Structures
1.
Amino acid sequence: MRVSALLVLVIASILCAQQLEQLVYVSVFNGNEDIYLINEDGTGIKQLTDNPANDWSPEWSPDGSKIAFISERDGNPEIYIMNADGTGLKNLSNSDGNDWDPRWTKNGKIVFLSDRNRYWELFIVNPDGTELKSLLSNWVPEEHMCWSPDGSKIAEESDATGNWEIYVSDSKRKSMKNITNHPADDYDPCWNRAGTKIAFVSDRDGDQEIFIIKPDGTGLKQVTHNHTDDHSPQWRPLPSK
């Protein structure tokens, strides 16, 4: 009976571990901005990039197998891609300009902003670096907001009350609710793929840390705990069933 009970506990712990979602984020823990992987409960931290230059703005591919990000390792901000474990690093943009804000399309391509032609343009490229082309010229980026996966809600940052807070509203930006409501600054919200949690950045403990909260403002949890700045959280896509 003791063996059976122990077996049940082991299986339960394995199932709990399998249910944990993961995030990538940026930390200056080693003196410059690098990209890390972490479980939502704060365990399993893994450094994915390790370069004297800054690496930031990580974005998961739709299947969770790759990460696009910005790096200055060639002397200027460019778009790179790597596997989820940090291997397979590749420069996708290869320009003398500033390349910013990588985003994945649903069919696995990457769009990003660039001023390589002396004005901002929206480009698209394949994950292997081929078929690079301009989509829009004179592009003006919008303020930061994050749509829920089903498109029914928006999480966004606002300093309307005098400090930065996270607000959730419907798709028409009505019935806005302050879900953080803290004297410190809270910003950079990001929905998980199920639409049940929002990761965000807060300096409420004296430096930038990653927190998680439910869309109704309950269930606040701190994910990172260190004395350096952590920011830019992005949820890893859940595996297809």
Note: The chain has one helix and 20 strands.
2.
Amino acid sequence: MDEEKMRAAKPRRRDQFAMRGRLLLAWGLLVASVVLLSIGWYGVSGTPLVARQLAYLISGGLGGLLAGIVGVGLLVSGDVRRDRDRLGRLEAAMLELREMLVAQAEALNRLTDDSRDEERAAPRAKRRA
């Protein structure tokens, strides 16, 4: 592979920083989700009035649930993106390998055709002599 192709195959630094940022954000949201759910549970468990429990449930429970869903979504999207990049590099390598094999097969066919032509021409030359 040429040096340019090698560089193109590697993710760029900006993409790496973006992927790391998404990863950190996803894990941060998952931690925030656990914290919000814990605060919500603690608030609900210490309050006997249902009206106040609903406030904790809405702020802690739904906020924690939303943060968890977004965090997991970011993790999954990062995995899908990474797999898509890997598959793209694999596809490019396979296409390059296919081109090389086709070129070698064509060269081999030309060689065998040339040798067959020489074999056919040799008996004719012997008959003439």
Note: The radius of gyration is 33 Å.
3.
Amino acid sequence: MKTNSTRQQVALAVAAAEDKKAEDISILQMDRSSSAFTDYFVICTGTNPRQIQAIADDVELRLKRAGNYPNNVEGYNRAEWVLIDYVDFVVHIFSEQARSHYNLERLWKSAKKLTPAELRKPEARAAATKAKAGVKSAAKKTARKRPSRTTSVRTAAKKSAKRGSGPSGTKRSTTRSTAARKKK
């Protein structure tokens, strides 16, 4: 799935949680070099089981309207820790006690913490990232165009060897030496 549409879906889930008065909403963008199984975590807290279920219901409803159905929902009946898995992102809705016990933010401390405002502005960040990448790639291209002295000497030696001339410019003999013939 495209990252931009994933970010939009995560923003929908965050908006649903905010509308249902979820507390302490955290968005973690998982590090690609880690062994993360998803791109984003949305972590929030509900004050009681009914609110936790209401947050889960609203997240599911909004994303279903957008055409995105959860792959799996766990913990809804107990309402201590509701996990809604959308493959590209996972929504965790905790009770206060369960959140402090499991402390996912500490567990995934290598993940980048985003604010809802940063999540809703992917175009500006993507443009800045592309601009930086463009400067880096231009620098790499320039570096490739200017070979070092040792590289140009090696290249000249390879070209002369292909043409058949020796280091002194004399034509090499194409016949084998007598010692090479005796080895066969």
Note: The two ends are 62 Å apart (CA to CA).
